[in-house]
Write a structure and sequence with these properties.
The protein is elongated. A five-stranded parallel beta sheet has the order 2-1-3-4-5, with helices on both faces. 38% of the residues lie in helices and 20% in strands. It is α/β, with parallel strands linked by helices.
Length: 239
């Protein structure tokens, strides 16, 4: 059973994915898909080799088939967990029954997906299990005299509080997370309005101008800089 060939947009954070899959057609398709999405992928076709590679703990996530030669996928999974290996695992298998799903999750899988499958959904699930185990980011950010509090969505600039709309706050958050680097208009649109944004990016200019008006009083140094033809960058005045 072959994956549905749906194009997946590259994700922001690159991952190192270990693929343990004995089906050559599916393996090649996944290897190509993960690579084109901007990730590193190592593919092996048997359970024993997969278990050995997993023990190195170099992968950020593992995509694991269950019907494997050499060592069954569930045995690979149980062996990993018994050895204290906590690398997130997404099981990808033709064993799609409810009891089999429950058994797989109880054996230590972080997610369970039945074949046939859609690649974009698989990639989203891999990203999601990695996000669950990632360290929580700081709830405050500070740059250029601006302090962003993510817990209560408040913005302070010096001694004054800046009143931002939810959209303006989201835009400022992404710019400050990438302070000093160019953030494209499309990245901003997808961050604010969703992963599959397909509208015009010109709408972001209106919000940027309003945000500048609130953060950059007359004669004050610019914080949000236009990168012509690309997007915007948040830079502290002394940067």
């Amino acid at each position: 059973m072959v994956a549905t060939c749906t194009t997946a947009a590259p994700t922001a954070q690159k991952m190192n994915i270990l693929l343990i899959e004995d089906d050559a057609v599916i393996g090649k398709a996944l290897l190509q898909g993960f690579t084109e999405a901007g990730h590193q992928c190592q593919w092996t076709k048997d359970g024993l080799t997969g278990q050995s590679l997993a023990s190195n703990q170099e992968a950020d996530a593992i995509v694991l088939d269950l019907n494997l030669p050499g060592l069954d996928g569930l045995d690979v999974l149980r062996g990993m967990r018994e050895a204290g290996i906590r690398t997130p695992v997404v099981v990808l298998t033709a064993r799609g029954g409810v009891d089999e799903r429950v058994h797989g999750l109880n054996s230590g899988a972080d997610d369970y997906m039945a074949k046939p499958f859609d690649f974009a959904e698989l990639l989203a699930r891999v990203v999601a299990v990695c996000r669950r185990v990632a360290p929580r980011p700081s709830m405050t950010m500070q740059a250029g005299g601006v302090k962003l509090d993510l817990s209560n969505r408040r913005v302070q600039q010096g001694d004054r509080e800046v009143d931002l709309t939810p959209t303006e706050f989201s835009i400022l958050e992404l710019l400050m997370r990438n302070a000093g680097q160019t953030v494209t208009r499309r990245m901003l649109c997808e961050h604010v309005w969703g992963f599959n944004w397909d509208g015009t990016t010109n709408v972001i200019e209106v919000h940027i101008n309003r945000l500048r008006g609130k953060l950059e009083p007359r004669d004050a140094p610019a914080l949000i800089h236009t990168v012509r033809g690309r997007g915007y960058a948040f830079r502290a005045p002394d940067a």
